[in-house]
Amino acid sequence: MSADVRFVAIGDSFTEGVGDELPDGTPRGWADLAAQGWARGIGAPIEYANLAIRGRLAWPIVDEQLEAALALKPTHLSFNGGGNDMLRPRTTLERIADAFEQVLRRCDEEGVTMILLSGADPTAGLPLGSVVKRRGDQLSAVVEARLGGRSDVVRAFNWPDRELATGDFWAPDRLHMNARGHHRVAARVLTALGIEPDPSWWELPLDALEPGERLRGAAYYREHVGPWLKRRLTRTSSGDNRVAKFADWQTIHPDGISAA
């Protein structure tokens, strides 16, 4: 693989890194980790940008982030979306899959390698999780059917990973992965790219995690479900007034990160 790598990530909270926060509160997440592992794996700096913003639906990701990402002239572009759409039952899965096809079409036109991800499955811990799981299973099948003939698309599918779906990989809100989950996804992305990840990333020791309070019953609904319902009723988003954390290239060295 060429050392001249320019990797840009677009998406929602999954790609922004929510649930894997650094001590200063900044989200890190799988894309940051994959960029670092990529530089280490090839033994050379790479360029990395991340335009993802939490709360975005699939088509707003495409409409707001895709062209800005392509304007950076990347060699690789990762895309995941649809997690927020699946929580809205009126959204059709075919419409979400159309967004994936649009990203691939534009990557083809610009000569960019697409990295296709599915999100991890949070449904074991969610209210009405069986309904969301069914839609997630269906969406995975629809997207794969649309893009199945494309061997040049790098695939990192996390939804089928039953171990990743268990509680030890999830933040207290049960909707976002914790550091353990994000490291596992990063390991899968690197493996799909032909790069050997740190073996510990597949399953970080539990004692390496910052403890988080896992609420149950009414306390969980009050702390996590209630605010989500309020945003739906008021038509607001957790990503309102937020900007991309790395809207321009960052140079990732094999041993660290520095601004471009």
UniProtKB/TrEMBL annotation:
MF (Gene Ontology): hydrolase activity
UniProt xrefs under CDD domains: SGNH_hydrolase_like_1
Residues covered by the SGNH hydrolase-type esterase domain: 9-183
Keyword line: Hydrolase
Coiled coil segments of this chain: none
Name assigned to this protein: SGNH/GDSL hydrolase family protein
Superkingdom of source: Bacteria
Species the sequence originates in: Microbacterium stercoris
